[in-house]
Amino acid sequence: MAEAAMKQSSSEQSDSRRRGRPRSQKSKNAILKATNALLLRSSVQDLSIEAIAKKAKVGKTTIYRWWPNKTAIVMDALVSQPGIQSPLPTPRNNAEAVIMQLDKLIRLLDGSNGETIIQLFSEAQADERAQKIFSDTFLTPLLDAIEFSIEEGQKSKEFRASLDTKMVVDMLCGPIFFRLMSRPHEMTNDFRDNYPKEAVRLISA
After folding, report:
1. Cα(148)–Cα(91) distance, rounded to whole angstroms?
2. Is the pTM of this model over 0.70?
3. Which residues contact 106 (CB under 8 A, 6 or more apart)?
């Protein structure tokens, strides 16, 4: 009888955990949605954990259950946006893969998202932990994907074998970030249509 009671208790606890997970995910989604909504009318510097919690209708402890600081929340909120999460189409070759990756970067940095990225980058300079989150969440996955496509393109002789891949990644992405920082109004459809193709042409074999 005692064994049956223990099994029932264990089953109830398991059911309770299963029931709790959807609520937890719902709260997490509400936090990300609230963060994106607040960023439309507030800078990263002015945004606060308190404001996010109030907008999402959760406690601050709920937020800190998933994120160590504001930078981490904002980065996750950005990458959770539907257009950002969409996978790229299957490229015909590595040159097309790089073009698609550069195109996605330009789209990500266009408009209000670009302003948020600039603010995050600025804020991260004064906080080593925030800088690591910015790099790990945003920069490193993006740059690694482009570097991989270049290396594969060298193997297939699409790109020059003598290229230093890390330097090429800097050369390809640098002008995009420079335009974002200095002339954001020129992050136009024309730039998005032409720059990736021209950049890939310059490194082609």
Report:
1. 14
2. yes
3. 176, 187, 191, 192, 195, 196
